[in-house]
Amino acid sequence: MVAAGALANVCALRVATIQAYAPKTVRTVDDIDWDSVATGVAKAVAMDPRPDIVLMGEAAFFGWLNPAVFTEAPPVPGLITDRMGEIAARYKVWLAAGLAERGPASTQAGIYHVYDSAVLMEPSGHLALQHRKFNVLKNAFDKAKCPEVFQAACNYSQGTLADISKVSVNDAGETVALAVCADAFCDDATGKSVCDTLAAIAPTAVLIPWGVCGTGEESSCSDDWANAMQKCEAFSRATQLPAVGTNAVGSRPFGRFLPSLYCGQSGATDADGALLGVAAPHDAPSVNVYTISARGANSNRHTQAPSKPESAPSQSTVAAANMKAEL
Question: What is the pLDDT of residues 73-113, one digit of tens each?
């Protein structure tokens, strides 16, 4: 069955990546810069070819590891998906993003468990697909800034493999599924469970909101553990699925092991794991469009002019080793 709002007579998926600076000052939903979100989507849909899907990064609204989410993240559906739906309907495009999702209440009043999730909104504005990260990285939050009830273990809550699914996005029957960052780490035992599940349901493409970061030294982004497109290549080789991933750029303001730099490297891979294009430049804000089919992705990339990237602070080799081991 073709999902409501599907685009007719489309034989390939055109996916735009919005590579942007990670949020740094969001404390409540009211702080989210929805004008910037809408501007990014407007830039994407103005490109030629026009994308069918626009993809943002992991935790795109509060920022990854922002402790404010334990009190302020809304449920799904909720305030954030409502605004995403409005933007998707305004520009008549599928819109996907990573976001913090309120989970069950904790034993402390006003404090909630939180999922590191991703959603896909239809061009009609309705919620089409939801995914909760399964391969949750432990010990990444700054425990000193976490609520008292989570002092023993301050982490995102884990999703379930049973919830992983795909949705049809056009009348040609092409489908997409979602994975969030480390879900696509197929060389990790927990990540492999997600990769195997995605391979079994075999979507046309997997949309991955990345949150891949290195140390404060830009050179760390060339290491395989901090390079989103090397991760994307490995994911596609392991699953035989095309993938499109969007990462952030600039400094990571939350969590442990700071300073830390988001490494960019948004882009696409084909079903054999061949790299078909990376955001240009890879380390600054930009908008790119890739054409994906069951046979792979078109390497013809269309870009928006980038902004100047942030400068990276220095970081020691010892800190890099610690971050790799614990994140």
Answer: 999 999 999 999 999 999 999 999 999 999 999 999 999 99
For 85, the domain range is 13-326
Q: Decide if 162 is inside a domain.
A: yes
In a domain, 39, yes or no: yes
Contact in structure between 170 and 14 (CB atoms under 8 Å): no
User: Exposed, middle or buried by CB within 10 Å (0-12, 13-18, 19+), for 199?
Assistant: middle
Q: Which residues contact 221 (CB under 8 A, 6 or more apart)?
A: 214, 227, 261, 263, 264, 265, 283
100 phi and psi angles, rounded to 5 deg? -80, 135
Quick: pLDDT tens for 199-216: 999 999 999 999 999 999
Which residue, chain included where needed, has tokens 């590579």?
19
Domain presence at residue 7 = no
Contact yes or no for 168/174 (Cβ under 8 A): yes
Query: Whole-model pTM above 0.70?
Result: yes
